[in-house]
Amino acid sequence: MSDLPNCPACGSEYTYQDQAMFVCPECAHEWQEAESSASADEGVIRDSNGNVLQDGDTVTVIKDLKVKGSSAVVKVGTKVKNIRLVGGDHDIDCKIDGIGAMKLKSEFVKKA
């Protein structure tokens, strides 16, 4: 048989390759091979520039962030040391000087 992947949309085994794309003749779904291997890169947390973050890294805030329930603001350029990565929507746990413990989204930081 064929070593081509099944269609991720409908599961059809009758896929074919058209240059760099895979095509399903049953549902007309088109995808690249990278989509089928995207699940291997799922658990990696990246910063706003695409750099891989790890526990203990130092990051810099790239946007003014309002602190919920307070009038405090985390300013652009604030360095945050010794981050801890967690799952969920806000994927960084950290302590910020003058504010305390908080959670950040990785899309608002860059690796220092």
From TrEMBL:
Residues 4-32 form the Protein YjdM N-terminal domain. Signal peptide: none annotated. Gene3D superfamilies: 2.20.25.10, SH3 Domains. Residues 45-112 form the Protein YjdM C-terminal domain. Transmembrane segments: none annotated. Pfam families: YjdM, Zn_Ribbon_YjdM. Belongs to the YjdM family. This is Protein YjdM. It comes from Methylophaga aminisulfidivorans MP.
